[in-house]
Specification:
- The protein has helices at residues 9-30, 45-61, 76-88, 107-113, 125-132, 141-152, 172-181, 196-200, 245-248, 262-279; strands spanning 4-5, 35-41, 64-70, 94-97, 161-165, 185-189, 205-208, 226-229, 233-235, 238-240, 254-255.
- It is of the alpha/beta class and 281 residues long.
- It has two domains: 31-115, Rossmann fold (3-Layer(aba) Sandwich), CATH 3.40.50.10860; 141-263, Rossmann fold (3-Layer(aba) Sandwich).
- The strands form three sheets. The protein has a six-stranded parallel beta sheet with strand order 1-11-8-7-5-6. Strands 3-2-4 form a three-stranded parallel beta sheet, sandwiched between helices.
- Helix 7 (172-181) links the parallel strand 5 (161-165) and strand 6.
- The longest helix is centred in the N-terminal third of the chain and has 22 residues, at 9-30.
- The model has no long low-confidence stretch (mean pLDDT 96).
Length: 281
């Protein structure tokens, strides 16, 4: 039986519709819609593409969006000053700081400087700590996007063996916590994991977000598994994931494509977080 392709676009459309209704209601109550500001540093084409995608979907969701591009050589003090301005701006409800930052900038300091109430991607110590303690408020949109896809296709997690490849603060670590909260049994892999394929073949649900195109091949997956590909890699072939999609889809029960899988859902969740921040949910 061919693999079920987990198309994220209808999932994103449903979430965007919910956000649009909430944004319209909020605009009637306070005179303006939710507002999101995104900060990018440098000329990274992936960041600019992502911000264009946010802009398109924000229009559908009734969220005001502004992209702020800072020079690649901005000083640490300059970045912190920009974050401070956005924290203090009453017309801005949510702030996204696009990661990774250039090497001369301290991502941890940037996250610590951000107002947790405006932290729509869950990177501040307060929001990360709340997630760890099982009391989430604003959480990273990318892992939530993956779980929203599973829920939309009625794929259960309780009692299943889940393997996460990648341990970043905005994907791998929070995703592992979210999977634990769904009562999955979770293993986290990273660049020091020995015999990666042996571990990934144990997964009933395999989640991959390591930033390496084609990392997961057909011989590394369990037949009948569900694969969530969080990878976004720009190559000569265009945007591809971390999974060898054409080969792996012949082995598994279900898989997300790249593009068109988790990506649009991630952006929709980010906009939903912006609405929640505006409401102070």
């Amino acid at each position: 039986m061919p693999a079920l392709i987990l198309d994220g676009r209808p999932v994103a459309d449903r979430i965007l519709g919910e956000v649009a209704a909430g944004s319209a209601e909020l605009a009637r109550l306070r005179g303006r819609p939710p507002a999101l500001a995104a900060v990018g540093v440098g000329e990274d084409p992936a960041t600019r593409s992502y911000f264009r995608s946010i802009s398109r979907l924000a229009e559908k969701a009734g969220v005001r969006f502004e992209a702020r591009y800072l020079p690649a050589d901005i000083s640490p003090a300059g970045l912190l000053a920009e974050i401070g301005r956005l924290n203090a701006d009453p017309e801005v409800d949510g702030v996204l700081i696009q990661m990774p930052l250039p090497p001369h900038l301290d991502a941890a300091r940037a996250a610590e400087a951000l107002d947790p109430a405006k932290d729509v991607d869950g990177i501040t110590p307060e929001n990360a700590g709340r997630l760890f303690l099982g009391r989430p408020r604003l959480v990273p949109s990318t892992p939530v996007g993956g779980l929203e896809v599973l829920k939309a296709y009625n794929i259960p997690l309780e009692g299943r063996r889940a393997v996460v490849v990648g341990r970043s603060n905005i994907l791998g670590k929070p995703l592992a916590l979210m999977l634990l909260a769904e009562n999955a049994t979770v293993t986290v892999c990273h660049r020091h994991t020995r015999n990666l394929g042996e571990v990934t073949r144990e997964a009933e649900v395999l989640c991959v977000g390591a930033g390496r195109p084609g990392l997961i091949t057909a011989d590394m997956v369990r037949p009948g598994a569900v694969v969530l590909d969080f990878g976004t890699n720009w190559t000569e072939r265009g945007l591809v994931g971390d999974v060898d999609f054409e080969a792996v889809k012949e082995v598994v029960a279900a898989i997300t494509p790249v593009p068109g899988g988790i990506g649009p859902v991630t952006t929709a969740v980010l906009l939903r977080n912006t609405l929640r921040a505006a409401r102070r949910d």
